[in-house]
Amino acid sequence: MTDAAAGRHAPPVRRTAVVTGAASGLGQVMAEHLAATGHDVAVCDVVPCTETAERVRAHGRRAATAIADVSSPEDVAAFAATGHEELGPVGVLVNNVGVSPYRPFLEIGLDEWRSVMRVNLDGLLLVTQAFLPDMVDAGAGRVVCMTSSVVWDPQSTEMTHYATSKAGVWGFTRSLAGEVGRHGVTVNCIAPGLVRTPLLQERVPPERWAATASRQAVPRTLEPADLLVALDYLLSDAASAVTGTTVPVNGGRVWL
Ligand SMILES: NC(=O)c1ccc[n+]([C@@H]2O[C@H](COP(=O)([O-])OP(=O)(O)OC[C@H]3O[C@@H](n4cnc5c(N)ncnc54)[C@H](O)[C@@H]3O)[C@@H](O)[C@H]2O)c1
After folding, report:
1. Contact 169/227 with Cβ under 8 angstroms?
2. How many CB atoms lie within 10 A of CB 110?
3. What confidence tens digit (pLDDT) does each residue in 79-123 have?
4. Which of 19, 68, 158, 197 is the Cys-Cys partner for 102 at CB 3.0 to 4.6 Å?
5. CATH architecture of 16-248
6. Nearest CA to ligand 1 atom 42
7. Can you say whether the dihedral through the CA atoms of 54, 60, 66, 72 is positive or negative?
8. 119 lines ligand 1 (CB under 6 A)
9. Which residue's alpha carbon is at the smallest distance from atom 40 of ligand 1?
10. What's the gap in Å between 10 CA and the centre of ligand 1?
11. pLDDT tens digits for range 179-194
């Protein structure tokens, strides 16, 4: 395949990545995978990312870590300073943080509603503004945001605030893609179905795992590693014309 046929019109994407919310769950798995595929990785979380950093370094890559709440301008500025000082400019940003409290709609208080929006949406603004200039300057970059298949699913209950925020993630992605495509930066979403992470394994009762799997074309519980193919695709140099879109990884979840 020629370079032109592969869509390689932009410079190669710099192999320095940022992953938010990487102390556990999908963020940790994606950070380790990024290291395994040749990236240095800066990670942040509200709890220490010590284990994630060890996993990154075990692949011979550099890691920078910070304790940072993505909805705090001060924390994000400090994280960006650490990341830039230790790793230099970044080419890849994975906006992974998301909180998803289960609550029946009529019981959602304004405080909880606002806290979901603050973490899931304010975080996108602050972290992306902190790292996007590196990509624009380089003329190449990849921003990947985590939305959710619940946005499409009228059978997902007790997640109105979460689903609302994740629809916002999708809108953010499409709109930003329109603004930065001319600079060689793509912005896309991954929309997981219900994926077995350590925290969800504790929170979600067995019947909900089974019920979700039974509504999938591929009727098995999804694992974090299932998402990595979507990440690889969106980050590849050959995907420089894939932007403003959402890649679902949900086992072909269906709803009536
Ligand atoms: N696991 C799933 O089934 C699933 C499905 C659809 C979408 N998603 C999305 O994928 C992303 C990762 O999901 P997960 O299941 O791995 O989540 P998780 O809860 O297992 O991990 C999220 C991490 O983010 C951290 N975090 C929480 N608030 C933070 C904040 N304000 N600042 C910084 N870090 C913070 C947590 O400490 C945790 O380590 C989220 O955006 C989630 O909404 C997950």
Report:
1. no
2. 7
3. 999 999 999 999 999 999 999 999 999 999 999 999 999 999 999
4. 158
5. 3-Layer(aba) Sandwich (3.40)
6. 98
7. negative
8. yes
9. 98
10. 31
11. 999 999 999 999 999 9
